[in-house]
Amino acid sequence: MSCKGSDLHDRIFREGSKTYYTASLFFPESVKRDVFLLYGFVRVADNFVDQLPQDAEGFFSFCRRYRQAWALGPGASTEDPVIDGFIDLARRKNFDPAWIDAFLRSMEWDLTRREYDRIEDTLEYIYGSAEVIGLCMAAILELPESAHQSARALGRSMQYINFIRDINEDLGLGRRYLPLEGTSLKSLTAEEARARPGEFAAFLRAQSRLYRVWQREGEAGYPYLPRRVLIAVKTASDMYNWTASRIMKDPFLVYRRTIKPSRLRILARAFLNTWIVLFHRPHRRGAAGRSGAAASAAADTTAGAPARST
Fold first, then answer.
1. Coil, strand, or helix at residue 212?
2. Nearby residues of 37 by Cβ (< 8 Å), 6 or more positions away
3. Rounded to whole angstroms, how far apart are CA atoms 187 and 171?
4. Containing H/E element for 302?
5. Among 112, 116, 250, 268, which residue carries the largest CB count within 10 Å?
6. pTM of the entire structure?
7. In a structure prediction context, what are the per-residue pLDDT tens digits for the chain, which is 310 residues long?
């Protein structure tokens, strides 16, 4: 990757995700380069559908150029360093093209779908927007297939807490990802939440508990991760836990401000995790001594990583 391309990917990542970007600085250099290539691609695609007004034409052009270059085989160029860098990464690390199709399909839904009324529909969206990013990270790290379920789970959990955290922001985009089935809530507007405060608080805490289930499933793969990789992944996950804990204490906080850790908090956690992982806590690779792991969505997503990030 050229110096110019490297600078571009660094800027895209840095501007798109404070948590993932800062945590990813603790990856080994070779891993970090590939994470930046991955995140550059998913962030640019996501930007087309998340900006106001949405740029549907730009998004479909981006998809078309990616698919044409992929179909032409190795050596084909779009003259777009974001797409070309990603395709080179995908070929080197043997990404399943179906993962990228699922990702682009979820991004396309953001152009047309406004509300998700069943958890099954939300999870279908999350598979494309976040779980496949975890699978890409697993491929970057050359992890065994047995690691994939945990990689998916951590990506799913991070995306879900993003949906909880960003309720108010998503309302501004005309979207609701959290299904309301099983509640008496008619919407997630601030007015509805204040009219039914007990129902809203119970609903949001239930969603946060669902996040915790998936997050624990993802973190169960930590023993497989190489130490340097674990530091970055654990730091990102810890920051999502911090966000979830703030929301659990005060669900109405989601309407007052966007809950994101400061860069200082992220760095402090990263240095603490470095001490824990390298000098304090015994580390075991795999249940039977195999290298590799699960749960790496920190790239953006890092995370993780999910296309939407912090």
1. helix
2. 1, 9, 85, 86, 88, 89
3. 10
4. strand 302-303
5. 116
6. 0.89
7. 554 558 899 999 999 888 989 999 999 999 999 999 999 999 999 999 999 999 999 999 999 999 999 999 999 999 999 999 999 999 999 999 999 999 999 999 999 999 999 999 999 999 999 999 999 999 999 999 999 999 999 999 999 999 999 999 999 999 999 999 989 999 999 999 999 999 999 999 999 999 999 999 999 988 889 999 999 999 999 999 999 999 999 999 999 999 999 999 999 999 999 999 988 755 444 443 333 333 333 333 334 456 666 5
